[in-house]
Structure formats: C-alpha cells, structure tokens
Protein 1
Amino acid sequence: MGDLVQKFGIQVSLLIAQVINFGLVLFVLWKFAYTPLLKVMRERREKIAQSLANAKAVEEKLAEAERLKEQKLIEARKEAQGIMENVEKETEHYRQERLKEVDAELQAIRAHARVEIATEKAQALTEAKTEIVNLVISATQKVVPQGTTKDLDKKLVAEAVEESKHA
C-alpha cells in the first residue's frame, strides 16, 4: 500500500485531514440541513394529508348540502302543491257561495217583480173599473133622462162592476 500511496502522490496526513473535514461537513449538513429539511418535508406531507382530508370532508359536506337542498326543494314543491289545492278549494267554495248569493238575489228580484206586476195589474184593473164606471155613468146619463136619482146611479154602477168582475 505504501507503493500505491506514493505512486498516486497521496499524503496520509492530508488524507486524514480531508476525511475529518468531510466528516465535519457531513455532520454539519446532517445536523443543520438534512434533519431540518426532513422535518419540513414531514410537516409538509402532514399538511398535504390534512388538506386532502379537509377537501374530502368539504366534498362530503357539499354533497350533504346538495341532498338537503334537493330534499327542501321537494318539500317546498309539496307545500306549494298543497297551497294550490287549498286555494282551488277555497276558490270553488267562494264561487259556490257567490252563486248562491246571486241565486238568492235573483229570487228576490223575481219576487219583487211579481209583487210589482201584481200591484200594477191591480192598479190597472182599478183604473179600468173606474173608467168603466165613469163610462157607464156617462152612457146612462145620456140614455136615461136627467131626472135619475143617485140611488139608481149607484145601482147601475154596482151592476156594471159585478158584470166586469165576471167578464
């Protein structure tokens, strides 16, 4: 080995110094670079794992929120349908009530019209009878001389009225 060391020009003291320097550099790098770097990488890996877990939890919460949203929409649709059915029932009930009111009003109008017609008919008959009586009196006075008595006039009028009732 001595020959080999001399052939290559290796100095043992220098080689030992370089090995010690290499060991020191290796120790310093290990202590102050590699270990902190491993620690930072481990922390980074944990943060990434935590972020992935959080992302998965957020996705699950989002899916749950979506399911809740769909459920609420279905409930809202059912509630809206129920409200619409109630509105339709109330509308139909109101329409029926209004029809009854209109029928009652029409019946009242018809009854009132019948009463008015009967009243007008009676009034027209009374007026016609009065006119007939006046005509009979007038005709009687022309036919019978002026000397008739009031009793005779009344009797003739009463007979004319009776005849008009039967006619």
Protein 2
Amino acid sequence: MIGRLTLTLLAAAASSPPGDLAPIHGPYHPSIDPANFVRTIDNAFLPYSPGMRIRFKGVRGTTPQVDQELVLHRTVRILGLTCTVVRDTVSEHGRAIELTDDFYAQDRQGNVWYMGEDSFERNKAGRFVKASDSWRGGVNGGKPGIIMPADPKVGDAYRQEYYPPGKALDEARVLRRGARLTVPLRSFRHVLVTSEFSPAEPQTERKYYAPGVGEIAEHVVKGHHEAFKLVSLKR
C-alpha cells in the first residue's frame, strides 16, 4: 500500500512545473522517491528504449565529428532507482575521442531525470581516462535534475544536473513549441526548442526535440563553433 507521504509527493509532483521540481535558483534539494518512478522512458520528447541507436553528424570547431548514442540493455541503480543507460560516443576520423554513459530515470508524471554520468576522454597517451565532470546522484554532493519535463511549456526553466565539484551545473529553458526543422534524416513538425547553459561555462546551446523521436539537432549559439544533426535512428 502506498503511504500517505508518498501520495502527497505524487500529488505535488503532478501539479508542479519543472522549475519547482528542479529549481535553478536558491537551495537545491530534489526529492527522489523510488515509488514515484517507472522502468520505461517514454516521454514524448525523449523516448529511450533498449537497443535504440541514434546517430548525429556535425562539427566542433573545424573538425567533422560523429556522435552515436546506444540505449543499453543493462541498467544501473542510483538513489534506489533502476536507471536506463545511454552510451554516447563521439568520434573524429573514425576514432572515438569521448565516451559517456548517461543515466536516466522517468517519474510517474513523465519527467525524465538525469541521474548522473560516467564520462571518459582520451589523454595524450591515447587512453581513456575518467573526466572530472563525471558524477552520480547521491555521491560526493551530486544531485539529479530534469533533462526533459513531462509537458514542457514556453518559459519553463529547470536544473538538469548539479555537481559543483566537477562544475556540472547545466540548466535549461524552453524557448518554443511547434517549430519546424529539417535534418538529414527528414523534416519534422511540432519541434520543441530549448536553450541549455551552465553558469560554469561561457557558452549556450540550442537544442531541438521532435515528438516520438527525441533530440534531432543542437548547435552552440554562444561560445565555440559546434553543431550536430540527426542522420539515422534505429529502434
């Protein structure tokens, strides 16, 4: 039987905008109740099913890159939640230079929470080493944030991650719904547009999400030159 406290938390989450669940101002203490989470990530703007393969092509600076995401069949436990693992590999000239396992979980209201990441970069010796911005909720001050609201509305602002030791402090704001965008895969309508930034970094990204698909493009609008577009999707 679900206790009275859990019912109160469920009701509060159902009626609260993402900015109340993961505020960008003031003290940050997100409430994570395992009873309020589900195993499947089926948010309209960020669906992740095991075996899903997502491929982007783009450029960082003047160097062409490929960014491939694979939703793994294995899971990890963070703060009592069973989290979906998405492996993100960035390559240059056919050689992987960055490897990240991102951890996600969805609550019963449909918000997708970012629970942490294990990030690795190649050093000068050619070996992968763990990056300083790797973090997990509940470890060394790391706290999860919302990576995608259940029902994003224009003006919504929310914290995506919180790990001050590694300067992982990303925040996001919803700029637009109902946009149109053409990427190499195809053209999309009803696109969600967000602005993502961090007080620890001097750059701002704009990201685009299509319903039933997920992210379809991103580009840096303030900072260095970087842009990626979706070229293939296999479920």
